[in-house]
Design goal:
By secondary structure, this protein is mainly alpha-helical. It is built from 18 helices and eight strands. The protein has three domains: 144 residues; 106 residues, no CATH class; 122 residues, Orthogonal Bundle (Cytochrome Bc1 Complex, Chain D, domain 2), CATH 1.10.760. A two-stranded antiparallel ribbon has the order 1-2. A two-stranded antiparallel ribbon has the order 3-4. 40% of the residues are buried. The N terminus is likely disordered. Bound molecules: heme C (3 copies). The site of one heme C has 24 residues, from helix 2 and helix 3.
């Protein structure tokens, strides 16, 4: 009687392992559309060549991956080759997943085939433009960029650093957002983790550079950020990073979070143009207040700030409770205004554990929201930048209009 029971116990263990790998690899984020059913696809990914929709990866036989054999599943996830030989676009991060070990792949397959609920939902057609819509072009791309070796620790690596590298480069694919791309959309190795545009957002430099990177974040800052999306007087996760925290990093074991941190600590520094670290900007000095706008009620940006932002972030931007300070904040001290403008336009909603944080979307079309025009947003951003953040970054209304268009293509 013991054998069948043990077999079931080890199946359950395999499925649970697969659930953890799927969480660490954040399959949910891309394969679930807003308010849609888990893993049923339809999530739009905007790329410079058109919009690519993720597909239904529930085990539905009619519309999902129910017919995938284990070998076919491995090919899709690690080689970007779908059932029947269709080349997938690298919007599916198979170049990062290529190194996932056979053992982890087996667990993933067990999870997707036996624990995910089948959902009947047809895939949405992509709007990728010629010539990029010819999937055969991916053969060349794969030849240039796809490294098909599975993961092996390097001789000089401690097991913890190796685990961190496996998580950062492969399962969590942090570089798909934090590493900029070459003209052919391949990752640029010289710019590894040194910051990149992601749609309307900006994924900052997370290398060890003392000015441009995160050398001044302590281990506990990084732990707080990855586990809750918020690190006091450092930064908070909005947009795609809020999804990473919500769907993935908050559920990692503390051992895996520590491995990520230890690994990030030895990533080579990549410098930028910044002169001062983005979390080092304090409140503008008092003698300059008038000039910088803090005390002049004539400044339009101050008016918008005082009407739309100060109730939460407080009059001197110092924040209170769950409302973060706008000084010593990577979003106001960074090298560009993308995350500031994107947060004002899109707002922020993030859940971790039982707590959630919310900031309204001032670019929303909903009637009940206090909507702000491009000009209002440019003015308030300039006020925030010069009073609380990096005063050398200033924007105009057309900058905001471009970001608004990127947000709602
Ligand atoms: C960054 C977004 C993203 C993440 C993360 C992601 N996928 Fe995908 N995936 C896609 C997109 C987009 C497609 C469709 C690509 C295309 O049409 O060329 C896709 C396609 C697939 C396919 C092919 C399905 C079919 O319709 O034949 C499989 C299987 C798959 N993904 C599995 C996974 C698994 C398992 C994970 C987690 C380990 C994962 N994906 C994580 C974006 C993602
Ligand atoms: C889907 C894209 C995406 C992925 C994947 C991603 N990030 Fe991010 N990350 C961002 C964006 C965008 C921001 C800026 C968020 C903000 O300021 O609101 C960010 C911010 C951060 C920050 C804070 C930097 C600062 O100065 O505020 C850290 C640290 C970070 N990410 C680490 C990671 C790590 C480690 C991983 C992998 C485990 C990862 N990210 C994966 C997009 C991503
Ligand atoms: C209803 C309260 C509320 C209002 C009003 C509000 N915010 Fe926020 N804001 C928040 C919360 C909550 C967060 C996120 C805190 C966290 O992530 O831990 C946030 C985050 C931010 C961030 C950091 C975003 C990032 O990507 O890291 C900036 C910058 C910001 N707000 C600026 C503004 C500006 C400018 C206004 C006015 C146009 C404004 N906020 C209005 C509550 C508010």
């Amino acid at each position: 009687m013991a054998a069948p029971h043990d077999a079931r116990a080890s199946d359950t263990a395999l499925v649970e392992k697969g659930r953890y790998i799927a969480t660490a690899a954040d399959c949910f984020a891309c394969h679930t559309s807003p308010a849609g059913k888990a893993f049923a696809g339809g999530y739009p990914i905007t790329t410079p060549v058109g919009t690519i929709y993720s597909t239904n990866i529930t085990p539905s036989l009619a519309t999902g991956i129910g017919h995938y054999t284990k070998a076919e599943f491995f090919e899709a996830v690690r080689r970007g080759i779908g059932r029947g030989g269709r080349h997938l676009y690298p919007a599916m991060p198979y170049p990062s997943y290529a190194a996932i070990t056979d053992e982890d792949m087996g667990a993933l397959y067990a999870f997707f085939t036996s624990s995910v609920a089948p959902v009947e939902q047809e895939n949405r057609p992509n709007t990728v433009r010629f010539p990029f819509n010819m999937r055969s072009g991916m053969v060349l791309w794969n030849w240039l960029y796809l490294d098909t070796a599975t993961f092996h620790p390097r001789p000089q690596e401690t097991p913890q650093i190796a685990r961190g590298r496996y998580l950062v480069d492969h399962l969590e694919h942090c570089g798909t957002c934090h590493t900029s791309r070459t003209l052919l959309m391949g990752p640029s190795s010289a710019h590894y983790l040194s910051g990149s545009v992601v749609g309307v957002w900006y994924a900052p430099n997370i290398t060890t550079d003392k000015v441009a990177g995160i050398a001044d974040w302590t281990d506990s800052d990084l732990r707080d950020y990855l586990q809750t999306g918020h690190a006091l007087n450092r930064g908070q996760a909005a947009g795609p990073m809020a999804e990473v925290v919500t769907n993935s990093t908050q559920s990692l074991t503390s051992g895996d979070i520590d491995a990520i941190i230890v690994y990030l600590r030895q990533v080579p520094a990549v410098a930028g143009d910044e002169k001062q670290s983005r979390t080092s900007f304090g409140l503008a000095d008092h003698p300059e207040d008038a000039e910088r706008g803090l005390t002049t009620s004539a400044d339009r940006g101050w008016k918008v700030f005082s009407g739309s932002c100060a109730s939460c972030h407080q009059a001197e931007g110092q924040g209170i409770n769950a409302y973060p300070s706008l000084t010593h904040n990577s979003t106001t001290g960074g090298p560009n205004a993308r995350n500031l403008v994107a947060t004002i336009l899109a707002g922020l909603e993030r859940r971790s554990g039982d707590s959630s944080v919310f900031m309204p979307a001032f670019g929303s079309k909903a009637l009940w929201v206090n909507r702000l025009s491009d000009e209002d947003i440019a003015d308030v951003s300039n006020f925030v930048l010069k009073t609380f953040g990096n005063p050398s970054v200033q924007i105009d209304a057309s900058y905001v209009a471009k970001r608004r268009a990127e947000l709602t293509p």
